[in-house]
Amino acid sequence: MAKKSDDKANALDYIEHIFTDFIELAGDRISGEDGALVGGIARINSMPVTVLAQIMGRNMEENIKVNFSMMRPAGYRKVIRHLKQAEKFNRPVVCFVDTIGADPGEQAEREGQASAIAGTIMEMLTIRVPIFSILIGNGFSGGALALCVSNKIAMLERAHFGVISPRGGANILWKDSSRYEEAAQKLRMSAKELFRCHVIDKIIKERELEGTANSIKRYIVSQIFHYESLPKEEIIDARRQKFTKLGSKYLYNMN
């Protein structure tokens, strides 16, 4: 049964509607499991892919279980594990991004949070298969950036993507979190603004779950077909060039 338009879907809903034969592969093979990220292998139109998905809970119980979408070091190491496996078996990677940020707690820092995020970004830059990121809700801070170093970034029209959450930005700018709407405007984190500034490549219209999932599926399939004939080095170079040029394009389009 399709969700009502006012029910916010999370990454698990999209995985169910877009892919077949999804098999979750848990754990980072070093320290344990991180429920804020689901990773596994699946098929899309019979084509094998690796799927990485940040999970936002639908209620308080689910959010506690997934640490309110805030990944810990084990989650980023799990991403690296899946990226290496995808490269070994020549599978494109699809990332669903939906997080308020990486876990900022003391324990995460003790376990090497910063180096885990940095290692993930480095792996995303060098992996020899195409990567496609879909922002489906919140996409804040390094927690989101680590899964957006991809060949193409698409974004649902009501999603947000930025270096910090609006409330966090308001606290830094004015010491007043109630000015979060003003902060959101200044941070230019809407899909329309980010598309205009060439930060993202595609805005996907949001409808009911099934309709939105079908639009995402068509986009992913079209990108897989586009990249499947490209040489590996060209795939890597295109990704690096995208982010090398990003700063100048963003500043130019802000004016």
Task: Explain what this protein looks like in three dimensions.
This protein has 255 residues and is an alpha/beta fold. Helix content is 46%, strand content 19%. The protein contains twelve helices and eight strands. The protein has helices at residues 11-18, 60-65, 73-88, 106-110, 113-126, 141-145, 166-174, 180-187, 191-196, 209-227, 232-244, 246-254; strands at 20-24, 37-44, 47-54, 93-99, 131-140, 152-156, 160-162, 202-204. Strands 1, 2, 3, 4, 5, 6, 7 and 8 form an eight-stranded mixed sheet that branches. α3 (73-88) packs parallel to α5 (113-126) and α7 (166-174) crosses α8 (180-187). The longest helix is centred in the last third of the chain and has 19 residues, at 209-227. The protein is globular, with a radius of gyration of 17 Å. Mean pLDDT is 92; it is low at 1-6.
Quick gist of this model?
Mean pLDDT is about 90; it is low at about 1-5. Helix content is about 45%, strand content about 20%. It has helices at about 10-20, 60-65, 75-90, 105-110, 115-125, 140-145, 165-175, 180-185, 190-195, 210-225, 230-245, 245-255; strands at about 20-25, 35-45, 45-55, 95-100, 130-140, 150-155, 160, 200-205.
Q: What characteristics describe this protein?
A:
single chain, 255 residues, alpha/beta, 12 helices, 8 strands, globular, disordered N terminus
